[in-house]
Amino acid sequence: MEKLKVARRTLGFTESIIRGMTRLATEHGAINLAQGFPNFAAPDVVKDAAREAIEKDVNQYAITWGSVRLRNALAKHYLDFYGMEVDPDRHLTVTCGATEAMVSALMAVVDEGDEVILFEPFYENYGPDAILCGAKPVFVPFAYDGSVDLDRVASAFNPRTAAIVINTPNNPSGRVFTREELEAIGRLCREHGAYAVTDEIYEHIYYEGRHVPMATLPGMADYTVTVSGASKTFSVTGWRVGWIVASEKVSDAIRKVHDFLTVGAPAPLQEGVAAGLENLGADYYGDLANTYRQRRNLLCDGLARAGFKCARPAGAYYVMADYTAVRASSSDVEFAEWLTREVGVAPVPGSSFFRYSDRGSNLVRFAFCKTRDLLETAVSRLI
Description:
Layout: H1 2-11, H2 16-28, E1 31-32, H3 44-55, H4 68-82, E2 92-95, H5 97-109, E3 115-120, H6 126-132, E4 136-141, H7 150-156, E5 161-167, H8 179-192, E6 195-199, E7 224-229, E8 242-245, H9 248-262, H10 267-279, H11 282-306, E9 309-310, E10 318-322, H12 332-343, E11 345-346, E12 348-349, E13 363-367, H13 372-382
Parallel strand pairs: 1-11, 3-4, 3-5, 5-6, 6-7
Antiparallel strand pairs: 2-8, 7-8, 9-10, 10-13, 12-13
Helix pairs in contact: 1-6, 2-12, 3-10, 4-10, 5-9, 11-13
C-alpha cells in the first residue's frame, strides 16, 4: 500500500481523472472526448471469430503466454509489416492488454532502486508503474512540436538507469519519434546497458511516413521490449488483449511475472484477435489511418474555429489544445469541468500528463476516436 500511496502523492493525477471525466460527461449528457475508446464497431471478422470460439467452448485457460494461433499470427504480422524475425515460442507473450504488458515488462527488467526514464507528457500509468516496481521515475520533457533534446536525454542516463519508456505515436500529444531520435536513444541504451521499453499500441494510427519499431534498428533487438495490443487497431479496448515482444532471456522473465499477475488473457478473445491479424490486410490498416486522419482534421479545424490553439498530431487519436484564449479559468481542471457541464464536450485536463500539475495547466486533451457525426456535433457545441 505504501508504494501506491507514494505513486498517488508524488505523481498527481493518474488514470482516475480520465474515468472521472467520463462519469462527469455521463452525468451532464456531454459528448465524451476524454476517454480514448471508440464509439463504433470492431471489424466483423474479429467479432465473428470470438463468437465462434465461445460457441466451440474455447472458454478455459489458454497457454499462459498466449494461444498458439495468436502468437503465430503476431509473428507473421511483425515479419510482414516490419521485417522483424519474431519466434512465436521464444519471443512473444500475450497479456491482459498493453497496460498489463507494460507492468510485466518493467517488473521483469527493473530492480528496486533502479531508475526509469519517462518522456513528459506521458501516459498516466508509466510513473506509477515505475514506482510500483521500486524504481525512481526520471522525467525528461520533450516538445511535441519540435525535436527531442537528445543532450537532455543523454544527461538523464546514469549507472542506475534500467529502462527508458518510449511511446510512439505518443499519448497524449500525438508526437511521433523520428528514426534519428530512436537511433540516438538506442545508442544510449546500449552504452548504459538499459532497455528501451516501447509502447507501440498506436502503431497503425499513423499519419505521416511509416511506423519504425525500435527493435528493428541496428543492435536494438536484444535491448528492446516492444509492447502493443489489439485495443486501438481493432477498436476493442474492452477486450484486454495485448502482447510483448522481447529476447528469449527477457521473455522468460516477463512470462514469470505475467503468470503471477493475471495467468492469461481471455481465451476466446485471443481467437478473435488472431482472426483479425490473419484476415485483415494492408488495405484495412491504410483505411484505418485515413479515416482517423479525416477525424483528426475535422476536430482540429473545429478547435481552431472555437479559439483553441493546437498542432495536428502525427499519430494516435488525441489532440492537446491550449484553451487560454477560449475562457479565463483558474486551472485546466476547472476549465475541463466547465466545458463538460456548460458546453457539453468533455476533455481531459492537460496537467494529468505531467509530473507537476502546474505543467500542462493551459492544456486539455481531446480524443477523436469517435464517429464523424459525433465529432461534428461536438464541434458545433464548441463553436
